Automatic annotation (TrEMBL):
<dbReference type="Pfam" id="PF12146">
    <property type="entry name" value="Hydrolase_4"/>
</dbReference>
<protein>
    <submittedName>
        <fullName>Alpha/beta hydrolase fold protein</fullName>
    </submittedName>
</protein>
<dbReference type="InterPro" id="IPR051044">
    <property type="entry name" value="MAG_DAG_Lipase"/>
</dbReference>
<feature type="domain" description="Serine aminopeptidase S33">
    <location>
        <begin position="48"/>
        <end position="325"/>
    </location>
</feature>
<keyword id="KW-0378">Hydrolase</keyword>
<dbReference type="InterPro" id="IPR022742">
    <property type="entry name" value="Hydrolase_4"/>
</dbReference>
<dbReference type="GO" id="GO:0016787">
    <property type="term" value="F:hydrolase activity"/>
</dbReference>
<dbReference type="InterPro" id="IPR029058">
    <property type="entry name" value="AB_hydrolase_fold"/>
</dbReference>
């Protein structure tokens, strides 16, 4: 198994991973029916064990996942990722591009389905199923044995989107992995106060004819010093993340809005209530020192999933895929093992 080590990163990221990401991956934009343009990237592997489809977290984008995509590809997998609406290089939805906004999480889910149907599957048809030119719909492609299995890899908010997509379209993925899933969040205030403020803010914005505004205490993008961050304990990976966003300011996204929080609360409630209906095989990896998402909600959902394996990573922070090697290596080893035939 080939995984990038922290000791290699200072030289390897700039000399190998970054050029590979920019020159070896197919990239483009797909315009949806509502005019939203979504950015995507695809790394093809001619002898792929599987096609791994990534659903990233809030604030994240394809560029942040360069090291992860590279490692997955080096271990024999094709990889597809898109930037969710309102973040990364995809269309920003408001006059302030830093606002973290979505009206309804079902928009993310619908977008994701469209990216698979209209972008990914046609590419896979061209790359893997050239002999069967009549297989044009999703079901036909998925049933064609020439196509490697599709697997879903999600992080945080991307896990909430991923679960909702799996529930809506269980035929898409053979297996799913949810890392530090956003099945509940840890608010800075007591939950009842935070929920009250969210509902109040949404109502107030409607009354004054304003589409959205920042939740209390949120602001435009501002990089947090490493020692204050709650995301990862790897200083090297954190510096690469922040440097990437400094070099491409268009990737930057600020804090959450009342409307995004309201939509996320509705989505997480639906996930917790509907978890027992998810029959897809899945693996949940979550962090012992996470202060972003709520582990008690994750554990409730784990207990309700019908075919679920789970592992708690003690002492790890929220972003398992970007953590120190002592956390990241066993996490990626487990993911790759789970996705192997």
């Amino acid at each position: 198994m080939q995984l990038t080590k922290e000791t290699e990163l200072p030289e390897k990221f700039d000399s190998v991973i970054k050029p590979w990401f920019k020159t070896k991956m197919t990239s483009g934009f797909w315009t949806l029916a509502d005019g939203t343009s979504l950015h995507y990237r695809y790394a093809h592997h001619s002898a792929a064990k599987s096609i791994i489809v990534i659903s990233s977290g809030r604030v994240e984008c394809a560029a942040k996942y360069a090291e992860i995509i590279y490692d997955l590809h080096q271990n024999g997998h094709s990889v597809f990722i898109h930037d969710h609406r309102g973040q990364g290089l995809s269309t920003r939805l408001d006059e302030n591009p830093h606002w973290g906004y979505v009206e309804d999480f079902n928009q993310y889910v619908s977008d994701f389905g469209s990216m698979i149907d209209d972008v990914l599957l046609p590419m896979l048809n061209e790359n893997y199923v050239k002999a069967d030119h009549n297989a044009t719909n999703t079901e036909a492609l998925m049933l064609n044995h020439a196509l490697p299995p599709l697997h879903l890899l999600c992080h945080s908010m991307g896990s909430a989107i991923g679960v909702l997509l799996v529930k809506a379209r269980p035929e898409l993925f053979a297996k799913a992995v949810f890392c530090s899933p956003m099945f509940g969040i840890t608010p800075p205030l007591p939950p009842w106060i935070a929920n009250f403020l969210v509902r109040l803010g949404v109502r107030f914005n409607k009354l004054r004819g304003k589409r959205t505004s920042y939740f209390f205490g949120q602001s435009d993008y501002s990089p947090t010093a490493f020692y204050k961050n709650r995301l990862m304990s790897s200083k090297l990976r954190y510096e690469i993340f922040r440097r990437t966003y400094a070099e491409q300011p268009e990737l930057q996204l600020g804090g959450v809005t009342y409307e995004w929080l309201n939509a996320s609360l509705i989505a997480m409630k639906e996930i917790r209530e509907q978890a027992s209906k998810i029959e897809q095989p899945c693996l949940v990896l979550y962090s012992g020192a996470d202060t972003v998402v709520a582990n008690e909600d994750i554990e409730q959902v784990i207990s309700d999933f019908k075919h679920c394996e789970s592992t708690l990573i003690p002492e790890a922070l929220h972003e398992l895929l970007f953590e120190k090697d002592k956390f990241r290596t066993p996490v990626l080893t487990k993911i790759l093992s789970y996705f192997s035939p």
